[in-house]
Specification:
By secondary structure, this protein is of the alpha/beta class. Helices cover 35% and strands 26% of the residues. It is built from five helices and six strands; from the N terminus they run E-H-E-E-H-E-H-E-H-E-H. The longest helix is centred in the last third of the chain and has 31 residues. The chain is globular, with a radius of gyration of 16 Å. The two termini are 24 Å apart.
């Protein structure tokens, strides 16, 4: 099975650094900021995803989407046939808490995605210090699973949380596919 996961959120929140890390594209974190133009698609295999009572290997397309609203006209095309959304923000930037509400309404709510198809990542940039208490989120966002991310201090926790999320999305898709196949049989 192949998963298409969108990585969305405000500009300069660390989406590209996370995408590179989660896809094993690079070992380094940090570096000069270069905004994503439109979208970057990273393809990789994710091993040992827990899919109910079995473990699976899954192909993943991770769509690293630009955070600039000037690309808003592209979003419907990006969302087409997506299986999940990872909403990234930097909790150290106060405006990001408001912006992720807009992202949630524009992408997640409008598509009718289930909570199991969504993941919030509060990403602390390198050098920002230890991960603090979870941010105060709007009620619709507080229902989503949250990973506190600091790639300098707890990179494997971030990777494990992401793999758990992928496993949940894979399980949901497998169950949906099984129900569809059973409805054809009956």
């Amino acid at each position: 099975m192949k998963l298409k996961i969108l990585l969305i959120g405000p500009s300069e929140c660390g989406k590209t650094a996370l995408a590179n890390f989660l896809s094993d594209t690079t070992e380094t974190i940090g570096g000069d900021y270069s905004p994503t133009q439109g979208v970057r698609i990273l393809e990789f295999e994710s091993q040992n995803l827990s899919n109910g009572n079995k473990h699976s290997v899954c192909e993943v397309e991770l769509w690293d989407c630009a955070g600039d609203f000037k690309f808003e006209s592209c979003w419907p095309a990006l969302m087409k046939e997506s299986n999940g959304v990872v909403l990234v923000f930097n909790p150290d930037v106060p405006s990001h808490l408001k912006e992720i509400e807009t992202w949630h309404a524009t992408i997640i709510s409008s598509q009718g995605l289930l909570e199991t198809q969504c993941l919030l990542i509060a990403h602390h940039k390198p050098g920002s210090g230890a991960v603090r208490d979870p941010p105060s989120l709007a009620s619709k966002l507080s229902k989503l699973p949250l990973i506190n991310s600091n790639l300098e201090e707890d990179p494997e926790d971030v990777r494990q949380g992401f793999h758990k999320y992928l496993g949940n999305v894979l399980r949901m898709l497998s169950e949906s596919q099984e129900r569809e196949e059973m409805s054809i049989i009956t």
